[in-house]
Design goal:
Number of helices: 10
CATH topology: MetI-like fold
Order of helices and strands: HHHHHHHHHH
Oligomer: single chain
CATH class: Mainly Alpha
Number of strands: 0
Strand content: under 5%
Number of domains: 1
Structural class: mainly alpha
Radius of gyration: 23 Å
CATH superfamily: MetI-like
Helix content: over 70%
């Protein structure tokens, strides 16, 4: 326990050191605030300008959470279909890879043309950046199923559906949660990009307004908010992962005990 606490302080100490170097270098070389504001100036703006960015935070949270939930649902469903139906995997897996080679910032204006300025094109942008890591992680998890257990279930006459839900799905959870954590951080990025398209509220809007008026300290405040949201989402998924994997482990022990009895 003491060792983990000690290790947890190391990144914080490095961050503090970097901020001190940043502050000292900016003052030493007299860098203008519009070019590179001091960390103390950014912190002051974050505290004094609280009322300016608070409405934008809730808008980004709503948008990113909606897109994330839709994106991971699509990602899991696509992974299951590709894994259970080999023909679909052979036909669509290359297209799945190619879909990630299109820059979202280029695709976003087309979505506005096709679907207007409402919430739909923004959610689609987030779905596009979220579903892919979930799909790939789930597919990898399905393929890493224990071969001995797979042969055993086939030998005792288990159906493909039973094998999937009783063996392959539970064994894919560690890999799946890796994809979910990556998608969680991508969802905030996707939300900010989609807000650049013409939203009324959101951290992306706040950042755009600050950048156009050369309020560089506010731009850094927006970056800080994005980082905090991403880390919060990551932490939530990490907590859910621990609960789910602990429940799976306990379920496996109970199952083994009942088998031996």
């Amino acid at each position: 326990m003491k060792s983990s606490i000690t290790k947890g302080w190391r990144p914080l100490l490095v961050l503090i050191l970097l901020l001190v170097i940043w502050e000292g270098a900016a003052r030493l070389f007299d860098i203008p605030a519009w070019l590179l504001p001091l960390p103390t100036q950014i912190a002051a703006e974050a505290f004094t300008g609280y009322s300016l960015y608070t409405p934008h935070i809730m808008s980004t949270i709503t948008l990113s959470a909606t897109g994330y939930l839709v994106g991971i649902t699509v990602g899991i469903v696509v992974a299951i279909l590709l894994f259970r139906i080999p023909f679909l995997q052979q036909a669509f897996y290359p297209l799945l890879i190619l879909s990630q080679n299109i820059p979202v910032i280029v695709l976003a204006p087309l979505l506005v043309i096709w679907f207007g300025f409402g919430m739909l094109p923004k959610v689609i942008v987030i779905v596009l950046v979220c579903f892919f890591p979930v799909t790939i992680a789930a597919l990898d998890g399905f393929r890493q199923t224990d071969r001995d257990m797979l042969y055993y279930l086939k030998m005792i006459g288990a159906s493909n559906r039973q094998i999937f839900w009783k063996l392959q799905w539970p064994h894919s959870l560690p890999s799946l949660f890796s994809g979910l954590k990556i998608a969680a951080t991508y969802s905030v990025m996707g939300a900010v990009i989609s807000e650049w398209l013409g939203a009324n509220k959101g951290i992306g809007v706040y950042m755009t307004l600050a950048s156009s008026s050369f309020k560089t300290d506010r731009v850094f405040v927006a970056i800080l908010l994005i980082m905090i949201l991403s880390l919060t989402y990551f932490g939530i998924i990490l907590a859910v992962e621990k609960i789910a994997l602990r429940w799976r482990s306990q379920g496996g022990k109970v199952s083994d005990g009942s088998t031996h009895s």
